[in-house]
Amino acid sequence: MEATHSLRFHGIILRSHLVMLLKKNICYSYSSNLQDHQKIAYQELTENYPRFPDIYDINPDDLDQTLIVDVTAYMNPSPYTVQPQSTVPQVFNLFRSMGLRHLPVINHQGQIVGIITRHNLINEFLAKCLSDLQN
Asked: pLDDT in tens for each of the 135 residues of the chain?
């Protein structure tokens, strides 16, 4: 029987970096040694700046589904986050002051329970949500 455990939030990676890892096939098998994992330098991750490849340029059929992409070395392990009970003004101020595009919502157990995007904070979206709550 497989042990069950809750997944905890460990960080966030930029889409452009993930695409570069996939395009460069930086993958390994689950049973391989950590020392054998191929790594790439930050310069290689950003070599196409500002015209990064699009995620839709990746053909899933070209990827070996049995391999793992370890993003640990490329992710931000302590991004800005909010809790589920954070208020809209708090979230809006964080987005605005830090220039964020995405904001993970993390519960007290360290689990990701959602993600807030810029789109979620536009007036029309907030007005619709408020109207839905009132109905």
From this structure: 344 556 789 999 998 899 989 888 888 887 777 666 778 888 888 888 888 888 888 888 888 888 888 888 899 999 999 999 999 889 989 998 999 999 999 999 999 999 999 888 887 777 887 888 887
Q: Which residues contact 95 (CB under 8 A, 6 or more apart)?
A: 103, 116, 118, 121
Exposure of 116 in the CB half-sphere (CA atoms within 13 A): 23
Per-residue HEC secondary structure of 1-60 comes to CCCCCCCCCCCECCHHHHHHHHHCCCCECCCCCHHHCCCCCHHHHCCCCCCCCCHHHCCH
